[in-house]
Amino acid sequence: MDSTSHHQQFKIILGSSSIARKQILSHMGFQFTTMYADIDEKAIRKEKPEDLVMALAEAKADAIVGKLQNIKNQETDGKSTLVIAADTVENVEPKLHGSEDAEPTLLITCDQVVVYEGVIREKPSNKEEARQFLKDYSGGHAATVSSVLVTNLKTGLKKGEWDKVEIHFHDIPEEIIESLIEEGIVLNVAGGLIIEHPLVLPYVKQVVGGTDSVMGLPKALTRRLMNEVL
């Protein structure tokens, strides 16, 4: 399944609005469309970070499958009108059961939290919390726990797993923290942690694991799960 986008034998929907995840999946050589799962993440609570990210990836997948079902139902309603208007049912049959059903569609949903001193951190709720998060990481370390769930929409088969990466930091100067808060991107990411950011990168001491996982989409895991559901 190392096929590039030119001879990709399946469709992919990335169930995420994350720019980093889109970039990683593109770099992996895949063509895909994106959909966003509109769920209340705070309504889903688990004690263990691994359980939480898996539950959220599942909830996102369920929400997107529901959206797709609604779209399909609307299209089917439209097509049934075509059947009545057509001279013969055969004219319409290929459109309903044609090439679009021949290849499977894989839905990829993900989630991520940061764990600091055993406490789960999601997106900062305000600037003060983001500032505290970054001050905590300065000279210390944190971990990201990322989940990937791949659902084969044709067969219903789904496989998911989580990946954990440790990040160690040098001391981060206060003016750097303030610049990051002012810019605001850190407010939109789990734990306010974004190691690929040009302001943060110089202060990353060591990453134990894959940087792609820290950015939200572990490549090797994603490929393996895609293989397992095809």
Automatic annotation (TrEMBL):
Q: Is Glycoprotein a UniProt keyword of this protein?
A: no
Keyword Hydrolase applies: yes
- Keywords associated with the record: Hydrolase
Task: Write one Gene Ontology MF term.
Answer: nucleoside triphosphate diphosphatase activity
Give the domain of life. Answer: Eukaryota
Cross-referenced Pfam families: Maf
- By its UniProt entry, which InterPro entries does this protein fall under? ITPase-like_fam, Maf-like
Report the PANTHER family cross-referenced here.
BIFUNCTIONAL DTTP/UTP PYROPHOSPHATASE/METHYLTRANSFERASE PROTEIN-RELATED, MAF-LIKE PROTEIN
Spell out the protein name for this chain: Maf-like protein
- Phylogenetic placement of the source organism: Eukaryota, Viridiplantae, Streptophyta, Embryophyta, Tracheophyta
